[in-house]
Amino acid sequence: MSGGPKQRLQGKQIVLGVCGGIAVYKAVELLRLLTKAGAEVSVVMTANARRFVSELTFQTLSNNPVYTGMFDSVREREIGHIALAERADLFVIAPATANLIGKVACGIADDLLSTTLMAAQAPLLLVPAMNVHMWENPILQGNLKKLSDLGCHVLEPEVGALACGAEGKGKFPDPQRIFEAVETLLHERDLAGETVLVGAGPTLEKIDPVRYIGNFSSGRMGYALARAAHLRGARVILVSGPTALPPPGGVDLVAVTSADQMRKTMLDALEEATAVIMAAAVADYRVAEPYSQKLKKEGAGGLTLKLERTPDILQELSERKGERIVVGFAAESENLLENARRKLAAKNLDLVVANDVTLAGAGFGADTNIVTLLAADGSEESLPCLPKEAVAGHILDRVAAALRRRR
Ligand code: CTP
To answer: How many structural domains is the chain composed of?
Structure first.
């Protein structure tokens, strides 16, 4: 499984069940996100949902007929509700009303949506949205607990101003959040049971209380790896230098600043890890004796700082690697493959991701990267210019395969 030009949900069949509630209009946005990512979506609307938004909106955006009634002879002939239930990879009910949740929990099948769910084999994601008092009602909570215990997934509503005028929990989540939950549920989980330790971002080395030596690393490659490893079922520990990126959901993020802090944090976490991916741009030098007070200008002359080497974190990690898979990066501006091969051997790595930082579309700050993967078995694969998420997919394919071989 890897990214490449393949869309994130390509080939996935999703049944989107829509119940009646003011949040129906937001389900339209969710449908748009799902189809944009390549999913084939069949929408089932309850009679009340159709009072809020016309089925034509869902039909146009899904590019599929919308299923509304049990006894619609045309649709039942085209594809009956049982076939609809059988071909789905995932059912998403958004918004899910207290009524629908109650019916599913009690095994009542009295309309097309509840009947289709009765025949469902695929996982079910419920996205409840309702008034705060309905949400807090112990009958509803009991029904949700029963469904969770049976293996259904529930995306809890958000807290905020509700359409009924009340304030509290019950708000339909941001469609992007629902989309991410869908993606997580549909992803191949070939890293389940693994713990992946990722180093990301730059390190900043102090000159005085207000200044530092840093680099242009955005952290994007490391964050893409952490997110993708999480989607593939791994527990992820992301040790990150300062970045402007939002923390990836479901990942244990430990924020650090200097190379020394990153070293200590990663060595401490190594014990738990089964794979390590070092995508951080660790500063190679730090100021030998940082100033304890803010440095003052003196005369017109320049300033000379004495620098000393920082520890090579990846080297230390791989010295203690044991059975772990260890992946490093090689950022080069010349002799790419020669330098990368040297790093692969010198740092005892399983895989090196080599990139020429002078190429447009590669390296620091860019959304894309152009890399060659060099493995310990001597194989070398050059990838085209790809989004960093897709590069992460290729790297994790290698990690997953190496872990499988080691088991
Ligand atoms: N690395 C590290 N600690 C350092 C320097 C680098 O862990 N102090 C890691 C990087 O995260 C990367 C790999 O080592 O995964 C190679 O980093 P790179 O900067 O390409 O090379 P260096 O080993 O620093 O060698 P040079 O700067 O001489 O090319």
So the answer is: 2
